[in-house]
Specification:
36% of the residues lie in helices and 14% in strands. It contains 12 helices and 12 strands. It binds nicotinamide-adenine-dinucleotide.
């Protein structure tokens, strides 16, 4: 069996595949392959599986280049908006992802962003490095507490509910949430309130945290009109996918103090971001690293390998999205 990996990833999954005796080929470029490069790498090489990343755009052309013997594209991410599922289905190709193993890490990163923006950590760090600290002062760099505030979760799935857990259990926050599905068990355990309308959530929330997948129904879910509905004192946190938030509208809202601050890990046109955001003090930006710990990236590597091994052994892969 032959497997192509589109970029170097942490080693544990690769070792698992090699120990099974499979032939593993890893792209020699430490960067995202251009579409033509990916097609060239696959065409005529008889790969039985491809381990791909969220930065690879996988569509009909790529499936056709891989050829009919290719049984699975194992995505090294929980989101799979980079893959044309319809084209995969038409060709009977398994698509798998890496859920659960990254939930805690992404929730931790989300929380780090929430606290960092409301306690002005990045600004304070720049202040120190700039040699501006002249001694304790009662009005210096005042932030806001998270404790006891209203945290609004948009998309109460694995990651959203873990963020809600930390906010309620650790910080006595009141949880409100919006999702296409209601979860009454969760409501009981976390004294949470379900909102059938996202606008109601935005009007009442101090910290809005976005955890929906990128779908047609969630693209620009947070737009200028919705940012206007938020409290002027509110913070927006996004660790889901960039296009869920209209980035131009976010820039305007931050610049004009429509909302108090934002902390985001994902961008509409990565690796680019809206010009001017870098000049604002009321935003913290991280480069899509919410799942980026050594432990989790290894766990994702093992899980992607497990999915491939299952398919090769004629079993249902544990994380088939298709
Ligand atoms: P999940 O599937 O467990 O949760 C998603 C939730 O969103 C579900 O409860 C679903 O019902 C809800 N939802 C779907 N469509 C909706 C809509 N139109 N309106 C409201 N709610 C809707 O997924 P998860 O494991 O919690 O991950 C969530 C997302 O986080 C992923 O899809 C991925 O895009 C993103 N993510 C980002 C990073 C990162 O590095 N920044 C890492 C992991 C995941």
């Amino acid at each position: 069996m032959k497997i192509f990996i589109t970029r170097q990833i942490p080693d544990q999954g690769i070792t698992m595949l090699k120990e099974k005796g499979y032939d593993v080929v890893i792209s020699l470029h430490d960067r995202v392959l251009l579409k033509e490069e990916l097609i060239k790498a696959l065409k005529g090489n008889g790969y039985d599986a491809v381990l791909c990343l969220l930065t690879d755009h996988i569509n009909a052309d790529v499936f056709d280049a891989a050829g009919p013997q290719c049984k699975i594209f194992a995505n090294y991410a929980v989101g799979f908006d980079n893959i044309d599922l319809k084209a995969a289905k038409e060709r009977n190709i398994f698509i798998t992802n890496t859920p659960d193993v990254l939930t805690n890490t992404v929730a931790e990163h989300t929380f780090t962003l929430m606290l960092a923006i409301s306690h002005r950590i990045a600004e304070a760090d720049r202040f120190m490095r700039g040699g501006e600290y002249k001694g304790w002062a009662p009005m210096l760099l005042l932030g806001n507490d998270l404790s006891g505030k209203v945290v609004g979760i948009v998309g109460l799935g694995r990651i959203g509910s873990r963020v809600a857990h930390h906010a309620q259990k650790g910080f006595d926050a009141k949880i409100i949430y919006y999702d296409i599905k209601r979860n009454e068990e969760f409501e009981k355990e976390f004294f949470a309130e379900f909102k059938t309308n996202i606008d109601n959530l935005l009007e009442e929330t101090d910290f809005v945290s976005i955890h929906v997948p990128l779908l047609d129904s969630t693209r620009h879910l947070i737009n200028a009109e919705r940012l206007n509905k938020m409290k002027r004192s509110a913070y927006l946190i996004n660790t889901s996918r960039g296009p869920v938030v209209d980035e131009k509208a976010l820039f305007n809202a931050l610049k004009n103090k429509i909302i108090k601050g934002a902390a985001i890990d994902v961008f509409e046109n990565e690796p680019k971001f809206e010009k001017g955001l870098e000049k604002l003090d009321n935003i913290i930006m991280t480069p899509h690293i919410a799942s980026g710990t050594e432990e989790t990236r290894q766990a994702m590597s093992r899980l992607a390998a497990e999915n491939i091994i299952s398919v090769f052994e004629g079993k249902e892969p544990p994380n088939a999205v298709l």
